[in-house]
Structures are given as C-alpha cells and as structure tokens.
Amino acid sequence: MNVHHRAWGVWAVGLAAYLVGVMHRTSFGVAGLDAAARFHAGPAVLSGFVVLQLLVYASLQIPVGVLLDRFGARRLIVVGALTMAAGQLMLALATGLPLAILARVLVGAGDALTFISVLSVVSAWFPPRRVPLMTQLTGLIGQLGQVLSAVPLAVLLHGPGWTTAFVSAAVLGVAVALAALAVLRDRPPGAPAPPRAPSPREVVDGLVSSWREPGTRLGLWTHMGTQFSGTVFALLWGVPYLVAGQGFSPGAASAMLTVLVGVGIVAGPLFGEFTARHPLRRSWLVLAVIGTTALMWTVVLAVPPPAPRWLLVLLVVVLALGGPASMVGFDYARTFNPGHRQGTAIGIVNVGGFFASLLVALTVGVVLGLIGPADGYSPEAFRGAWTVQYVIWVLALVGVLVARRRARRKMAIEGVVVPPLRELLAERRRPR
C-alpha cells in the first residue's frame, strides 16, 4: 500500500476514534432526563455532570498538547479511547451520584486526549494545502457521534435500559482503541523523526511562546465564540429545552440533534475550502457565524413559547455552523506556530470553546433552578436561562477583533499586508 492510500486508512481509524469519542461526550445529552430520574438530580446537579466533564476536558487541553508533542498521537488516542470506555462502563453500573460523577470525569479526560491527537495525525499524513479541508472533514464527520448517541444509544436507553446502553458504548470504545493500536502511526514511513522530547523548561518556554503568538489567541477567541452554543445545546440542554420548553416529544427532540450534525457535515467542507482559498479572510467567516448565531437566538427568545417548529429548525441549522467555524481556530494555531509547538497551540485554542461551554452549561442550570418550578422545567425559565449566552458572545467578539489587529500588525512587520476588505471589494468593482 502506497503512502497516499495508507494516509486515508490511518485517517479513517483516527476519525473513528474521534467519532466514538463524540458519542461518549454527547451521550449525556440524550440521557439527561433519564439521569435526573435515576440519580434524583435537579437542574443544577444535572448541569454539574456535564460542567465537570467539560471542566476536565478544558483544563487538560494544554497538558495534552504538551503530551502530544512529547509522546505522539497514537499513544494518546489509544489511552483516550480506553479511558472513555472505562467511564461509560462505570456509568452503566452507577446507582448513586458519586460514581456517576467520577464516570463523567473519566469521559472528559479521555475525550481531552482524542481530538487534538487526531488533528496531529491529519497534519502529519496530508499535504499542507489539504489540511484545512481534512480538518473540517474530521471535525464534522466526527460529529456523527452525536447521531450514535441520539439514535441507537437512545433506542437502547429507552428499550433494554440504562445499563445495556452504556455497556454497549463502552464496548464500542474498546473496539476503536484496538483498531487505533493496530493501524495508527504518528507519521508516514520515511518522514523525519520528531525532535527529542523537550525538557520541563523548554515545555514552559513553548507554552509561553504559543500564548504570546497573536494567531494562537485569535484561534482561542474564534473557538470560544463559535463553538459553545451548539455544544451546550447538544451536550445537555437542547433536548430538555425542546421537550419541556417547546413541547417536542423526546423522539422529535433527539431527531433535531441529527439535523445539527447533518447541516454541519454539509457546511464543514465549504468552510474548509473557503479557509484554504482565502486564508487572509478567515476572520470574516468567524465574525459572520458569531453574529448570525446571536441574532437567531434573539429571534427565538423574543417569540413567546412554543415557537413555530420551522423557527426552531432554523435555530438548529444556524447552531450547526458553529462547529465548522470553530475549526478555523485550529487553522490559526497551525499557520501561526512552528511545527514543534503546534500541539501546545492547538491545546490552547481548544480551551476556548469548551471553557465557555462549561460556564454556559452551569449557568443555564443555575438559572433554571432559581426561576423555574420546583418540580422540573418551564418554557419561561428556559427563555430566561438561554440569555446568559450573550456575555460570551460579546467577550469573544472583542477578543477576535483585538487579536486579529495584533496578528495583522505582526504579519505586516513580516511583509504580509492584509488590505482592508472595503479596498478589496472596490478593486473588484472597477471595470477591467
């Protein structure tokens, strides 16, 4: 098998590991109401499950980036898959809160090891011109893991039951770990060996250098502003919101998560191709997605519940654009940092969206507990709770604009001048 064909095989296995990881990550989204009954958990406690999972994920991103640069992608992907499988098995057997919470901690830890390791495989095995598109395909096809949790896992959950559903998820995790161990390699045959493992001092210096790079910070704010709303919707509050807040049946609410994935898969390659063709205009795509998402939520929340079904479908379509747009943040990390610290830079970027997600998931749960009825959720409580998102959007927009200006200033010093968009449009309107 030549290197080109082998690259696709390696990518397929890495993609499968990420896809199953997304299933583990989002499994609590479809099981939220069942978990509330099983563990006698109110809104704040329920949000605490996902918040803790995301906190572990986000806090491990920078250490995982350092580990990736040191130990390589294959080891981290295998360990991540086995760790998530252990968490799902523990959740399958849990009957009380402490064990269930520990289970979600394991899922968050294993999840943290997976995605940026798969991105490292993409960068190593594919030519640079193809990397933006392959990054989008990885992120978006991987989101089919939400479909695995929204459909087959939900069927098992509401059929054979809680234990069968999560044991099945654990078995699937072990299967992809074995596949990764057998097939994945960190780099193609004949590729230069990676540099020696950095010393602790060099690790700190690399972390500081990555953070000081304006492009890394631009990637972090990009990831934060685009990713969190869809993540919170898919991981925890989307199904309860649609069922208790908008009158959907559980099956129809789960189906909406498949719409989220499907639209993202269509948008991902388009965003990836745009990023590859117009690398100096990536930020405009990011700003457009953040603005459109905030506007769509404003329209939905302005309508007294229940909102028209078509409007909620449109909301989900817009939320689906956040995933592809967040991939632009990783592209910033790749193009603004040298190869020996890209793992660290990608880890920094990945903190943004998931840190925002855990803050919003927790705050939505707290607000629901404060203004909602004592025996569950109400449409008006959800309507008020979702407004906490605006704080993150404002913060991310300011961060993107400031970091973009600093990145462009540095690029100009290096001889790359980004002309204002109005000048570019005026040039195109002039007769030839």
UniProtKB/TrEMBL annotation:
The chain crosses the membrane at residues 7-24, 44-64, 76-95, 101-125, 137-159, 165-184, 218-239, 251-272, 284-304, 310-333, 345-372, 384-403. It holds the Pfam family MFS_1. CDD domains: MFS. Keywords: Cell membrane, Membrane, Transmembrane, Transmembrane helix. Gene3D superfamilies: MFS general substrate transporter like domains. It is found in: Cell membrane. Residues 9-408 form the Major facilitator superfamily (MFS) profile domain. InterPro entries: MFS (IPR011701), MFS_dom (IPR020846), MFS_Efflux_Transporters (IPR050189), MFS_trans_sf (IPR036259). It is a multi-pass membrane protein. It comes from the Bacteria. This is MFS transporter. It comes from Pseudonocardia xinjiangensis.
